[in-house]
């Protein structure tokens, strides 16, 4: 039974981009909340460096401009960004008096990240980051990491300015052959919510037993979140979840790694479409 949650470490994947530095600030807040260590991972992309070694290598900027790149200048840029990340950590984390460290390595982002974390860690990454240097979104990286990480993962997105929805969360209860896991997902989501966050909506995936809903989920919600809306559906897809997020003014989406939705390519499109944090539970 999950009564409380406290990670061994809060781990954040950074690359000195604006989005990853926003994720860093969130990671610092979370580490302070749980009074735990903060580990920042800066990974120099090996594949990108290998491509830059070719004489015909070119970089297409966000403006469409084409520029020649070479390995030496790219390595220098990576060193500069790593130093920017270190300064940001020292400035932000140091002032909050939490223990932190920056780990710089070279390799492929996904395997390097997975190698450095354990089931006791809480991983945070920005929705857009590493892939920006190739003109792509982080979606494929986020999808791979959230699927394979052993512990909880938050894909951070800075809420749209002026939007007052940060305090309301929606949880997607996975379909499972055992009713026990659905209730445990609900309890873990409850344990991981922030002090000023509330669970506003719970969506139950198809194939869940009605006994789970009527005898376990509904009574638990009445005790802890009496105003929460409990939705039982016969079908679930990204469009439906996006509609619920909009209708219920949701500021955070929570789902289990066992959820049907996370194993569909539509989940990546959903992450790109929504401008709210996504929390994936083990």
Please characterize this protein's 3D structure.
The structure is a single chain. With 282 residues, the protein is an alpha/beta fold. The protein folds into 2 domains: 9-156, 3-Layer(aba) Sandwich (Rossmann fold); 168-281, HUPs (Rossmann fold, 3-Layer(aba) Sandwich). 40% of the residues lie in helices and 23% in strands. It has 9 helices and 12 strands. Strands 5-2-1-6-7-12-11-8-9-10 form a 10-stranded mixed beta sheet, with helices on both faces. It has a two-stranded antiparallel ribbon with strand order 3-4. Helix 1 links the parallel strand 1 (9-14) and strand 2. Helix 5 (139-148) packs across helix 9 (266-273). The protein is globular and about 65 Å long. It starts with 8 loop residues before the first strand and ends with a strand.
Summarize the structure in short.
The chain is α/β, with parallel strands linked by helices. It is 40% helix and 23% strand. It is globular, with a radius of gyration of 20 Å.
């Amino acid at each position: 039974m999950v009564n409380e949650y406290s990670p061994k470490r809060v781990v954040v994947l950074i690359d000195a981009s604006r989005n990853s530095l926003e994720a860093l600030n969130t990671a610092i807040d979370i580490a302070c909340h749980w009074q735990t260590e903060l580990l920042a991972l800066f990974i120099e992309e090996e594949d990108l460096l290998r491509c830059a070694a070719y004489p015909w290598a070119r970089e297409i900027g966000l403006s469409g401009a084409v520029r020649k790149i070479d390995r030496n200048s790219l390595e220098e840029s990576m060193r500069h960004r790593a130093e920017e990340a270190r300064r940001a950590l020292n400035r932000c984390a140091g002032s909050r008096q939490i223990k932190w460290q920056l780990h710089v390595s070279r390799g492929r982002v996904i395997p390097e990240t997975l190698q450095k974390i354990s089931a006791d860690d809480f991983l945070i990454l920005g929705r857009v980051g590493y892939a920006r240097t190739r003109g792509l979104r982080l979606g494929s990286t986020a999808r791979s990491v959230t699927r394979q990480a052993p512990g909880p993962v938050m894909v951070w997105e800075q809420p749209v300015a002026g939007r007052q929805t940060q305090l309301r969360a929606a949880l997607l209860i996975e379909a499972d052959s055992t009713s026990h896991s659905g209730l445990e997902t609900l309890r873990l989501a409850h344990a991981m919510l922030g002090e000023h966050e509330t669970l506003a909506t719970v969506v139950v995936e198809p194939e869940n037993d009605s006994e789970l809903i009527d005898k376990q989920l509904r009574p638990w919600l009445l005790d802890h979140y009496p105003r929460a809306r409990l939705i039982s559906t016969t079908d679930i897809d990204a469009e439906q979840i996006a509609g619920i997020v909009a209708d219920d003014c949701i500021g955070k989406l929570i789902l289990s790694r066992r959820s049907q939705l996370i194993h569909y390519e539509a989940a990546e499109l959903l992450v790109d479409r929504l401008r709210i944090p996504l929390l994936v539970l083990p």
